[in-house]
Design brief:
single chain; alpha/beta; four-stranded parallel sheet; 15 strands
């Protein structure tokens, strides 16, 4: 049975109960859920060129045939098909549903960013992960509905492929989607940053406005964060350089003239009023010789820092500990451009102890034992070595292989190795 509650559990809102019950149900019945997911994917995509190419003619939803015939692949194997889609070919090449856009991966292929196909339904599915985060977090840090989160979130540049499809980073896609912009009010997910500041493509104006709004509501901020640790450190360095301007704006109730984006100015001016005592407080703290603990000093009710500090981001842990005064560092989800995978059911663990629970509805997950990869040449890897989610062994290391609704089949995520923990 999957444990999702901490000791001394507080009162759980009904919506949170439903979310926790969902996690319990899909993880306790992972084998059944995974078979259903793979059947749905194969049925939806049964007429695609890709599956026909690999012998799934007329048996698109046959799991046994899929496991026997469909190979593991890397991005380079799919690149010709992805180029056809990017160039405007609308036939069902990889997916039976229309490709709505491409998500750009941070990895590269031939010097270019990887393009991951996405469909509209997949955006709906991925939004479900976000709805699970606070129900889990509330088990460990109760009372988050009594304040706000200062999250520093940013969009990046987007482009269009020759065929007219948008190509943009996964977080930019999420922040510009209706799931984010039109999200219903949730007392556990109230942020200090207005949407207009988050969606501003000018990184300076976006950062300035978000930090200003976070400072204006410093007493009600209960958690701070960004997606990646590097972005949060960048925000602290920005604050070190620009706090005199920010304090002046708060002192006078006027917004710096360099903030020229009209939507950002209008959004910020709704909350910006002269506050000499707050301005003096900020100046006093920021003028101190050491910035150790500056996060907890400026936002005194902060309970944790919500950032990804696993993998390559772990190098920032000492810096975050210094600036935050040792606040807990929370890594709450596990996602990529290819697929959203799961979440951390014990988010208050130290970064070195973080583990993630895969949510079986997100895609079909298989695992390649690391010993196969290390003892073999890439050319000899065989899809018959793959292990289903319910058949992994404790203590064994694996590479994650994913099949998605959007048209990735037995795709080697590549930069992920995972040790199975109890």
């Amino acid at each position: 049975m999957l444990e999702v509650e901490a000791p001394n559990t507080p009162t759980i809102p009904n919506e949170h109960k439903k979310a926790l019950e969902f996690i319990e149900d899909v993880t306790s019945n992972a084998g059944e859920v995974q078979n259903r997911v793979l059947s749905e994917i194969l049925k939806q995509n049964s007429k695609t060129e890709y599956l026909h190419r690999h012998g799934l003619n007329g048996a698109g939803h046959d799991i046994a045939s899929f496991k026997k015939l469909v190979p593991m692949v890397k991005y380079e194997d799919l690149h010709p098909d992805i180029l056809r889609i990017a160039n405007g070919d609308k036939s069902p090449i990889l997916c039976g549903r229309p490709i709505s856009e491409f998500l750009t991966s941070s990895g590269t292929s031939g010097g270019e960013r990887k393009l991951m196909p996405i469909i509209e339904d997949e955006l709906d599915r991925r939004s479900r992960i976000f709805s699970l985060l606070m129900p889990v977090m509330n088990q460990y840090v109760p009372g988050l509905d009594k304040g706000k989160g200062m999250y520093l979130l940013f969009v990046k540049s987007e482009a269009r492929t020759p065929g007219g499809l948008l190509a943009r980073p996964v977080l930019t896609s999420h922040f510009k989607s209706r799931h984010f912009i039109e999200r219903p009010f949730d007392p556990y997910n109230v942020h200090t940053s207005p949407n207009e500041a988050i969606l501003c493509s000018d990184s300076y104006q976006s950062m300035y406005a978000q930090l200003l709004c976070g400072l204006l509501e410093n007493s009600v901020v209960l958690r701070v964060g960004a997606v990646f640790a590097s972005a949060f450190i960048r925000a602290i360095h920005f604050l070190e350089k620009n706090w005199p301007r920010l304090a002046h704006d708060i002192l006078t109730g006027t917004l710096d003239e360099e903030i020229t984006d009209s939507a950002v100015r209008e959004a910020v001016m709704k909350v910006l009023k002269p506050n000499p005592s707050l301005a003096s407080f900020i100046e006093t703290e920021c003028r101190k010789e050491s910035w150790q603990g500056i996060i907890h000093r400026l936002w005194p009710n902060t309970k944790y820092v919500d950032v990804i500090v696993t993998g390559a981001m772990s190098q920032y842990i000492p810096t975050l500990d210094f600036y935050s005064g040792g606040l807990p560092l929370v890594c709450n989800s596990y996602a990529s451009s290819e697929c959203y995978f799961g979440l951390n059911l014990n988010p208050m663990r130290k970064p070195s102890e973080v583990s993630y629970t895969l949510i079986p509805t997100m895609g079909y997950f298989e695992f390649l034992p690391i010993n196969h990869r290390s003892n073999s040449n890439d050319e000899t890897l065989d899809h018959h070595d793959l292990v289903d989610l319910v058949d992994v062994k404790l203590g064994q290391e694996y590479e994650l292989v994913v099949t998605t609704y959007a048209g990735l089949y037995r795709y080697q995520v590549g930069d992920v190795s995972c040790r199975i923990q109890e």
